[in-house]
């Protein structure tokens, strides 16, 4: 009995504490679910499209299209019919019953919508809650204190119109280049506070420790002091002060000082917490908390953007709020993952295009460190001043205290109402600079030019001044184009230019929607929405890793180890605030698996000690590796850099041993026979060790293959020179030691083709050519049916394909992939793609339905092309491919972008890396072929998928 009394007493104590907190803090009661995973069913009726005209249930929050209601619309649907087109607007009628906690009696009760698309009329118990809210991306609330009943069921009704009755809202939000969805897509909740309370605050916390805050007060009657306490995130109070207040005060400006605060930057996201308490004598009343960071943002016109007195350059990306199954209705975990992915690319900034995001995304930008451009909607047309003023107020009041937000963006590409510029500082005590994200020259504002999709050469011109240049969109990433292609050239311009402030790539992820009306296929509206560096479910495309290398703040430009390499690696520190001594470095010497090993990847690894060098931000220095005496016996050197938070920055790889040394190990075989050579009326026939090759007398091309141990191989019709003209002038065959040789001499671009059959069955191919002009690609091709391929394993750079102007992000390893038909942005997000261009290949083993065959080279810098693919879709795939199915190349093409260049665009405008290949000297190339698994070698009968990201993740 005594124990029961103790338990009851403890419960009473806990209850009293909770009741006391309820009296002094805001309480929230969700009427909907909290996110797209945790939803609550409401009653629903839609006026048009699927399930129209009858009551049903709908999950809230959500878009009604994703719940099987209404019809799908892409923004441009509304403008393709001309000025006289009238869109039949879908309306959704929501109804929900709820009760209110009894202890809320006597409090102020607000009804809050975090986001609803778009015009929203709300009733509580049959009474209009307030004005119809217009604007899809903003939090709005109603005081419903006098409309709530206690002890009874309350009824909430909301009528949501997909299109607005205000033309300017439709122009700003709905007639846009993205999916237009409907519904209450963010949470809905009740909020209870004492009538005497703090409604919101605006903070300005500077790098010198100055803390200022506008505290907005409501219905003061008892409180006579405002207690302000600043704490670190461990709860330690570092500054506290009381400020007198009176019932006349609606806003109280408080000013305090913190000595030597830890500063907030994207590299050092140090945060603090401030607690505001209304005090009456010794009695504490209502409390309000905020999280913030000490930092000073300056736009120094004619110079740059400064954070805490240091000029920063934006390595940024545009981001839509998006998930394929649920559209713009997301959750905190998705927001967290996106912030992590952006930082994994070594980016430091994000533009919230083209509307403010969920609050959780901004909170993660605060805590993990990203510079944020928070944007008012206005895709290419602006809100009216009347509507725009309300929405600026809603956006800034909600978001102003996030230290990650460094600039406000007042609309996109012409969607700028200049009458709204002065509205931001009414609610933002720190008076952040307002920019216009535009696509027309001459629209700079506040000293910053954000012009979109300028190329390398126009960027050079703009960077001459007079304005800071920070393109809020550049390098459009439709499909596999843009994004990292040309990025290295343009980034160097910004990094080295006084007025270069970096920029924001378009964009983060493909905006593909799961179509509930078409068997749940993912629809990107063809070429309109597959603009991401990642797929819709955040599948990593090749540009992801290329950006990661280009933007790595540990900047290493050494591409090959010099002949006299002694372990010294030149390095530039491209952090803004972090010395490289705070980073960790790890070296490895590795030996790679050979073609007939059971697995791919590394065979042996030796770890190397690397001391972190002292290199100040933006300065240059060197890393020193302690190399063992036998280091040249290994195949490659790896270097991994890790940032102060423990995240990998990048892993670089360099060859130690040459291809000549590598092929010397794989070419000698344990079995051999005499080489047979004969000819008929059309072919030379060479045979050794069970392998027979047929070479055409008229062309010098391989036309057929036979293998005593398997089916015939369909690898043929090569080497075809992929460009130029040639004419056969002579042919001869001879015996060279134990080998048989046939040689074909040509006039024209092709000089010769020479085939040599060895006793072990290796077929050696030597050829030479000279294009004598600028070409997109250069080399030779063979034919092989794509549908016969099972997979491939190769030693070279991978696992992602590359372009001439996007060589970064691929690392040296033994890679192995099963065949796939992945196409970036085209509905098949299987990465890394099997097909494409691959660089620095030593050997490649093809696994086919007809058996395996191996191709190797003892020379450097061989590119491999695999089958039919393209980078950008349009009237035709772009860029054009070489002839044939499998190519061995000495030059590959660059890729352009969708917007700046047109679908058949000239990639050269995005920098030197995008220029054509100047092939003005003779090229001599040797390839070795083995058409089967050699007898006496270990037969690898099972295809093993590797851990393909061992070096890049």
What does this structure look like?
- The protein has 953 residues and is mainly β.
- The protein has five domains: 26-193, Sandwich (Jelly Rolls); 197-292, Sandwich (Immunoglobulin-like), CATH 2.60.40.10; 297-535, Glycosidases (TIM Barrel), CATH 3.20.20.80; 554-653, Immunoglobulin-like (Sandwich), CATH 2.60.40; 666-930, Beta-galactosidase, Chain A, domain 5.
- 11% of the residues lie in helices and 36% in strands.
- The chain is built from ten helices and 61 strands.
- A nine-stranded antiparallel beta sheet has the order 47-48-49-50-61-57-56-53-54, with no helix packed on it. The chain has a six-stranded antiparallel beta sheet with strand order 3-2-5-11-8-9, with no helix packed on it. A six-stranded parallel beta sheet has the order 29-28-27-26-25-32.
- The longest helix is centred in the N-terminal third of the chain and has 23 residues, at 2-24.
- The radius of gyration is 33 Å and the shape is elongated.
- It starts with a helix and ends in a 23-residue tail after the last strand.
- Residues 6-19 and 936-953 have low confidence and may be disordered.
């Amino acid at each position: 009995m005594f124990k029961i009394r103790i338990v009851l007493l403890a419960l009473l104590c806990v209850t009293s504490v909770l009741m006391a907190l309820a009296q002094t803090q805001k309480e929230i009661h969700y009427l909907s679910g909290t996110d797209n995973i945790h939803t609550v069913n409401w009653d629903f009726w839609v006026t048009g499209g699927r399930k129209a005209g009858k009551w049903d249930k709908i999950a809230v929050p959500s878009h009604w299209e994703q719940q099987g209601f209404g019809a799908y619309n892409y923004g441009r649907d509304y403008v393709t019919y001309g000025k006289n087109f009238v869109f039949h607007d879908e309306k959704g009628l929501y109804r929900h019953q709820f009760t209110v906690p009894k202890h809320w009696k006597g409090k102020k009760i607000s009804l809050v919508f975090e986001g609803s698309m778009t015009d929203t009329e709300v009733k509580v118990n049959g009474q209009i809650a307030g004005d119809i809210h217009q604007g899809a991306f903003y939090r709005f609330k109603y005081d419903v204190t006098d409309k709530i009943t206690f002890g009874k069921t309350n009824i909430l009704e909301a009528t949501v119109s997909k299109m607005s009755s205000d033309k300017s809202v439709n122009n700003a939000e709905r007639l846009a280049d993205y999916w237009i969805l409907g519904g209450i897509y963010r949470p809905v909740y009740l909020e209870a506070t004492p009538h005497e309370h703090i409604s919101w605050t605006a903070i300005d916390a500077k790098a010198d420790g100055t803390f200022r805050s506008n505290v907005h007060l409501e219905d003061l009657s008892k409180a006579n002091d405002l207690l302000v306490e600043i704490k670190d995130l461990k709860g330690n109070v570092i500054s506290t002060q009381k400020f007198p207040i009176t019932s006349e005060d609606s806003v109280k400006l408080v000013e305090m000082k913190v000595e030597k605060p830890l500063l907030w930057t994207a590299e050092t996201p140090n945060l603090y917490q401030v607690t505001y308490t209304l005090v009456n004598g010794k009695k504490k009343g209502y409390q309000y908390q905020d999280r913030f960071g000490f930092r000073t943002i300056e736009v120094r016109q004619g110079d740059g953007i400064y954070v805490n007195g240091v000029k920063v350059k934006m390595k940024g990306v545009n981001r839509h709020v998006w998930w394929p199954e649920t559209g713009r209705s997301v959750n905190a975990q998705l927001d967290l993952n996106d912030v992590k992915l952006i930082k994994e690319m070594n980016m430091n900034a994000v533009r919230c295009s083209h509307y403010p995001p969920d609050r959780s995304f901004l909170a993660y930008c605060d805590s993990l460190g990203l510079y944020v451009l928070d944007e008012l909607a206005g895709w290419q047309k602006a809100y009216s001043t009347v509507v725009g003023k309300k929405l600026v107020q809603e956006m800034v009041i909600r978001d102003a205290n996030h230290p990650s937000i460094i600039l406000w963006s007042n609309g996109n590409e012409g969607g700028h109402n200049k009458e709204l510029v002065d509205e931001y500082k009414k609610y933002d005590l720190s008076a952040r600079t307002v920019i216009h994200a535009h696509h027309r020259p001459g629209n700079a504002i506040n000293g910053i030019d954000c012009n979109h999709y300028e190329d390398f050469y126009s960027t050079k011109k703009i960077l001459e001044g007079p304005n800071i240049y920070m393109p809020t969109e550049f390098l459009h990433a439709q499909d596999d184009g843009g994004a990292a292609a040309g990025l290295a050239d343009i980034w160097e311009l910004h990094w080295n230019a006084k007025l270069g402030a970096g920029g924001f790539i378009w964009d983060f992820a493909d905006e593909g929607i799961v179509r509930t009306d078409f068997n749940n296929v993912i629809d990107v509206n063809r070429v309109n929405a597959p603009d991401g560096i990642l797929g819709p479910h955040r599948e990593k495309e090749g540009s992801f890793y290329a950006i990661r290398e280009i933007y790595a703040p540990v900047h290493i430009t050494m591409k090959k180890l010099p002949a006299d390499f002694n372990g010294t690696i030149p390095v530039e520190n491209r952090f803004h605030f972090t010395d490289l001594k705070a980073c960790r470095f790890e070296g490895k010497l590795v030996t790679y698996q050979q073609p007939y090993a059971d697995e791919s990847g590394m065979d042996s690894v030796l770890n190397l000690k690397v001391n972190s060098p002292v290199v100040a931000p933006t300065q240059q220095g060197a890393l020193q590796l302690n190399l063992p005496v036998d280091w040249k016996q290994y195949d490659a050197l790896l270097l991994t850099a890790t940032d102060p938070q423990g995240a990998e920055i990048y892993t670089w790889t360099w060859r130690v041993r040459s291809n000549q040394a590598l092929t010397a190990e794989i070419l000698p075989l344990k079995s051999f026979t005499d080489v047979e050579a004969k000819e008929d009326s059309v072919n030379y026939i060479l045979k050794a060790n069970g392998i027979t090759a047929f070479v055409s007398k008229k062309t010098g091309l391989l036309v057929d293959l036979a293998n005593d141990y398997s089916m015939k191989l369909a690898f043929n019709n090569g080497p075809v020179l992929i460009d130029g003209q040639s004419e056969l002038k002579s042919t001869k065959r001879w015996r060279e030691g134990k080998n048989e040789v046939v040689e074909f001499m040509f006039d024209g671009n092709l000089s010769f083709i020479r085939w040599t059959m060895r006793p072990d069955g290796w077929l050696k191919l030597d050829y030479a050519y000279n294009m004598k002009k600028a070409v997109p690609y250069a080399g030779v091709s063979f034919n092989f049916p794509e549908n016969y391929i099972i997979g491939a394993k190769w030693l070279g750079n991978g696992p992602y394909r590359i372009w001439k102007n996007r060589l970064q992000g691929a690392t040296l390893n033994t890679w192995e992939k099963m065949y796939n038909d992945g196409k970036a942005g085209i509905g098949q997000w299987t990465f890394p793609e099997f097909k494409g261009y691959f660089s620095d290949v030593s050997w490649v083993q093809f696994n086919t339905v007809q058996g395996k065959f191996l191709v190797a080279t003892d020379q450097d810098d061989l590119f491999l092309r695999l089958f039919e693919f393209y980078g950008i879709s349009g009237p035709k795939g772009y860029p054009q491919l070489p002839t044939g199915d499998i190519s061995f190349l000495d030059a590959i093409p660059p890729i352009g972008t969708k917007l700046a260049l047109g679908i058949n665009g000239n990639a050269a405008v995005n920098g030197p890396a995008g220029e054509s290949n100047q092939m003005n000297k003779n090229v001599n190339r040797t390839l070795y072929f083995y058409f089967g698994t050699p007898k006496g070698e270990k037969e690898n009968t099972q295809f093993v998928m590797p851990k393909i990201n061992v070096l890049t993740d």
